[in-house]
Amino acid sequence: MRRLLAIPTAGELRRRLPRLLVGLLLCGVAFALPIRAGLGVDPWDVLHLGISHRTGIPVGTVSVLVGLIVLIGWIPLRERVGIGTIANTIIIGSVIDIVLPRLPAADDATTRWTMLLGGLALAGPGIGLYIGARLGPGPRDGIMTGIARRGHSIRAVRTGIELSALLAGWLLGGSVGIGTLLFAMTIGPNAHFWLNRFDMGEHLAARDQRPAIAVVD
Known about the structure:
Strand content: under 5%
Strand order of the largest sheet: 1-2
Distance between the termini: 6 Å
Number of helices: 10
Largest sheet: 2 strands, antiparallel
């Protein structure tokens, strides 16, 4: 019947917000590097690149728009929106659009692989920082957890979502390659390693069953 926005105290927000923002900035850079490398990107960026290719909209802006559309899917799933959810939706895509034009051309194999591996390496701590801040999951993560709570395996749900994004992006002309495979193989262990070190635990408002601001009636 409702989904609520969990608001941390001012003190908690001051403690957690820097980690959230640093994590999202790292993720923006991490996702921009493989795009420039041209060796394949993660499944969602395959979709973003495919839409960008078809529409001419910058890929980071596409990421923001897709995130906003995905948030609509939270309504029937009754997912709880956090400050981090909104920040995730806006910041990562915006950083991609800022960083991409400033990256050097990837004209040789060494540069391409350096960018790809650098992006893969940065993605783990970036995800660990923003998820570990516990200020709200990203739009795509919320869809996964919302469906999984209805009795489905998280692994199966995540795989289905990622494959759907990958297939749609590939059909639209997105970049699929060795980087896509490497991302799929490494992002789980990489994010898990860093999340174990950066997790700050839930804040009180997240545990409160009666937060103050209703998002959806």
